[in-house]
Task: structure prediction
Amino acid sequence: MNVEKFPSKLLENAVNEFSKLPGIGRRSALRLVLHLLRQDKEEVSRFGNSLIDLCNEIKHCKICHNISDEEICPICSDPNRDETVICVVENIRDVMSIENTLQYKGYYHVLGGIISPMDGVGPSDLEIESLLERVSQGNITEVILALSTTMEGDTTNFYIFRKLKGMDINVTTLARGVSVGDELEYADEITLGRSILNRVNYETLVGK
Result:
């Protein structure tokens, strides 16, 4: 086993931190750190400060739990959105993917994950109760379950469907233009857009 020898402890510390990022091995981390060292100090400072500002100042929308600069995100504060529809997604990346299709004009609800017993994630770890509160208190007529078509996503869809059953709303899900096993963020915009427009009643998929 090769042990890397660094000429500087500062360099080693930076490489160690970069290598903690997903998909970044130590060689890639070293390459990134050496790249930063070749940049102007002002540019590196802007890079570092942007990450510090992100950690210190980012907020989660009080309504939908999307990432935001303000207490209420721009989508939830937009009066031109369709207030009768909520699209339930796993994370911020899914919101961005759906917004990029330009096919959806309702609001969102970000769960912050999906049910995954193998990873120790249960319903109480997600923003499901706040979703139920929004549905019971607002003028919601439709909830779109737009989770990834994986086993965990389907499990979460079914759990939410059972919780919403009995409420006077239409529960729909994306048409299967998104292949089974796919994560939403990797679907192309045209396919995802069509899946939203051609969404189907969830109850017809699972039966009563």
In short: Residues 75-206 form a domain with the Dna Topoisomerase Vi A Subunit; Chain: A, domain 2 fold (CATH 3.40.1360.10). The chain has a mean pLDDT of 88.
